[in-house]
Amino acid sequence: MGVAAKIAPSMLSSDFANLASEAQRMLDCGADWLHMDIMDGHFVPNLTIGAPVIESLRKHTKAYLDCHLMVTNPLDYVEPLGKAGASGFTFHVEVSRDNWGELVQRIKSKGMRPGVSLKPGTPIEEVYPLIEGEYPVEMVLVMTVEPGFGGQKFMPETMDKVRALRKKYPSLDIEVDGGLGPSTIDMAASAGANCIVAGSSVFGAPDSAQVISLMRKSVEEVQKNY
Ligand code: DX5
Ligand code: ZN
């Protein structure tokens, strides 16, 4: 048996005015994690939520809050997000080339699980030192669209990076994010991804539970052969 499937609906596609009930609805539909997209309007053109919203949501759920930091200065977010009750803290390698060691240590000291993400144009080799270093990240998030917005088209060419990672690190959590749904999940699962973020395909479906279960089966089918 390989690594466990984690299906993480992206709350960016939810009704933010009803965040707590939307989160509960996803958990009732079988979600493992809730993916929280934190954007600063600088690293990406969009601006979403920050620690105060995570803190509010935490009062309503014990779920794993998988925070994806699309921000220029991730270090500034460690303390507030730790206090707010974030579970995972995934920063972007493009803005952390000089200080990832310190960043990972601080994330862990605040009780969060460190992860690193990379944009479609960033070579996979850039994250190897972060997996093999003294303070390793515990998840790699391979962006399958340009970060910033939900509802974009999945980029199949990013699957080469997932395949390379899975070959090198059989037990690593590998997350994919952007354009995932029933028509693209098999590409991601067969490349080796086990943590699946999906926004529009889950929230836009008449039966969200069915989409979550279909994606889980696709990952499990591949992982059971390891
Ligand atoms: C994009 C975000 C994603 C986004 C995914 O920058 O990181 O998490 O919400 O949305 P879909 O699944 O609609 O592509
Ligand atoms: Zn995301």
Automatic annotation (TrEMBL):
EC numbers for this chain: 5.1.3.1
InterPro entries: Aldolase_TIM, Ribul_P_3_epim, Ribul_P_3_epim-like, RibuloseP-bd_barrel
Keywords, alphabetical: Carbohydrate metabolism, Cobalt, Isomerase, Manganese, Metal-binding, Zinc
Catalytic activities: D-ribulose 5-phosphate = D-xylulose 5-phosphate
Residues reported to bind substrate: 10, 68, 148-151, 179, 199-200
Cofactor section: Mn(2+); Zn(2+); Fe(2+); a divalent metal cation
Annotated binding of a divalent metal cation, by residue: 35, 37, 68, 177
PROSITE patterns named among the record's database cross-references: RIBUL_P_3_EPIMER_1, RIBUL_P_3_EPIMER_2
EC top class, as a word: isomerase
Cofactor remark: Binds 1 divalent metal cation per subunit.
Pfam family, one: Ribul_P_3_epim
Organism domain of life: Eukaryota
Active-site residues, record numbering mapped to chain: 37 (proton acceptor), 177 (proton donor)
UniProt-listed GO biological process terms: carbohydrate metabolic process; pentose-phosphate shunt
GO MF annotation: an example: metal ion binding
Similarity remark: Belongs to the ribulose-phosphate 3-epimerase family.
Name of protein: Ribulose-phosphate 3-epimerase
Organism in which the protein naturally occurs: Salix udensis
